[in-house]
TrEMBL record:
Residues 42-278 form the ABC transporter domain. It comes from Pukyongiella litopenaei. Pfam families: ABC_tran. This is Trimethylamine N-oxide transport system ATP-binding protein TmoW. Keywords: ATP-binding, Nucleotide-binding, Transport.
Length: 354
């Protein structure tokens, strides 16, 4: 495991450029951009594009903390899948660094990558590629078989994760006998069976109908609290991102344009592209009091609305309807952790009209 000071994953200057001779073309484009006044990654990407290359990921840089659920979101074609494939090294990356627990896995040899995938990195993709001739139990236990673990131990461990994803009773079914949602669960169970430290999920629920999707999201959050695994999750659905994420990275045309908590994305979008995503989102249900709270002390008066930092803006506003002065915010131990003006709660919800 990594030390608590180190991020679980760090990407620095990561590029994935498609096209023959992309490495040399990127090096030239970066050198040319540097020589120009105000030269930057966007200029290099524009040059590459003009020469017929596809700069699908451009100079990506971010860190994912240990145990964090980091969501990458963007429109179709913005580069999400390419980015997660670079981080998980299904694609080599054209330049930059991908550090997992401090190890630059872009320099890892083939053997080391196989090892990392078997023991440390779990992956779930939209189309799971379950083995049709194997039962649920055998599909789930398959990664353990590859690791050379004995049959009894495989079975026992597979059963644990089958129970965890709610598929108990279906161990002996074949994939064709399962619904789409159940098949996704098998894929999730299979990727969890090796106790991975870092878990990559590329649109795992997007093929499902909304009801099943919501149910799996809830189960996913429940599983996640039990596992404490570091997770990188891709989606093009803002509501899914807001529901699941600790932090969200928004991609546009190969670039990460904003990284922030769900509240920051909803309340402080950096540009119209990000603002457009959250236009129809019920901000008051996602943003929390902590995001609009000021430093300060307060006393509990007779009208105290009992605000907490983790309360949604909607809930907080409902308690402050008749109040016109700053009110204290309390933690669970009853300590005042700041104050908030009821007008600021209302203003935060209006931000996108500006
Ligand atoms: N192997 C490839 N060769 C050339 N271009 C590619 C390749 N793979 C992806 N691209 C291009 O890279 C860009 C980013 O694609 P990517 O699949 O990463 O986007 P995405 O955000 O995941 O989209 P979606 O949500 O539709 O899956 C697109 O312009 C795509 O056409």
């Amino acid at each position: 495991m990594s030390g608590s000071d180190n991020p679980a994953i760090a990407c620095r200057g990561l590029w994935q450029v498609f096209g023959a001779g992309a490495d040399r073309a990127l090096a030239t484009a970066l050198a040319t951009a540097l020589d120009r006044a105000g030269g930057d990654a966007a200029r290099a990407a524009a040059d590459l594009q003009a020469d017929g290359f596809v700069p699908a990921v451009q100079d990506a840089g971010f860190e994912v903390r240990e145990g964090e659920l980091f969501v990458i979101m963007g429109l179709s074609g913005s580069g999400k899948s390419t980015l997660i494939r670079c981080i998980s090294q299904l694609l080599p990356g054209t330049a930059g660094e991908v550090l997992v627990d401090g190890e630059n896995i872009m320099r890892a040899g083939r053997q080391r990558l196989i090892e990392l995938r078997r023991r440390k990195l779990g992956m779930v993709f939209q189309h799971f590629g379950l083995f049709p001739h194997m039962t649920v139990a055998d599909n789930v236990a398959y990664p353990l078989r590859v690791q050379g673990i004995g049959r009894a131990a495989r079975r026992a461990k597979a059963q644990q994760v089958i129970d965890l994803v709610g598929l108990d009773g279906r161990e002996d079914h074949y994939p064709r006998q399962l619904s789409g949602g159940q098949r996704q669960r098998v894929g999730i169970a299979r990727s969890l069976v090796t106790d991975c430290e870092v878990w990559f999920l590329d649109e795992p629920f997007s093929a499902l109908d909304p009801l099943i999707r919501r149910q799996l999201q809830d189960e996913f959050l429940a599983i996640r609290t039990k596992l404490k695994t570091t997770i990188v999750f891709i989606t093009h659905d803002i509501n899914e991102a807001l529901k699941l994420a600790d932090r969200i990275a928004i991609m546009r045309d190969g670039r990460i344009v904003q990284i922030g908590t769900p509240a920051e994305i909803v309340l402080k979008p950096v540009d119209d592209y990000v603002r457009e995503f959250s236009r129809d989102v019920a901000k008051g249900q996602h943003a929390r009091v902590a995001s609009v709270m000021q430093a300060g002390d307060g006393e509990r008066g007779p009208d105290d609305p009992g605000l907490r930092p983790d309360m949604t803006l909607d809930a907080a506003l409902a308690r402050c309807m008749d109040l016109y002065q700053p009110v204290p915010v309390w933690d669970r131990a009853g300590q005042c952790v700041g104050t908030v003006h009821p007008a600021d709660l209302a203003a935060a919800l209006q931000v996108e009209e500006a």
